[in-house]
Amino acid sequence: MSTPPGHPTPDRSRWTGEKATAFLKALASSGKVAPAARSVGMSREAAYRLRARAPKFAEFWEFAMADAARARAAARRARTQVHPLLAKEVTHAPPNVDTMAQRASRIARARSQMARSK
Fold this sequence. Notes:
Elements: H1 17-30, H2 33-39, H3 44-53, H4 55-78, H5 100-117
Helix pairs in contact: 1-2, 1-4, 2-3, 3-4
């Protein structure tokens, strides 16, 4: 694709409003700076430099990262629940299973009753 005569060649090494907007949209969807920068033909370093010198861009950057974090959290919540017996962490004891503390307490009570009855 050639540039029409009399029109300057677009400078692909500089940030434009369109590039910044497209970068922020890509950042909001991925939460990853390098792929978002590459998607607009810029480097990760160039994105961080722009963020350092443009406070409004930095503010929108934070909004985009927050959007990405919310999307990741929603995706985690939407995943299929793991069966409680296969879960890595026990978040609550099943209704008919004693916790270690309940069991220890019950054993201590039984021992004290046995000692009193002797």
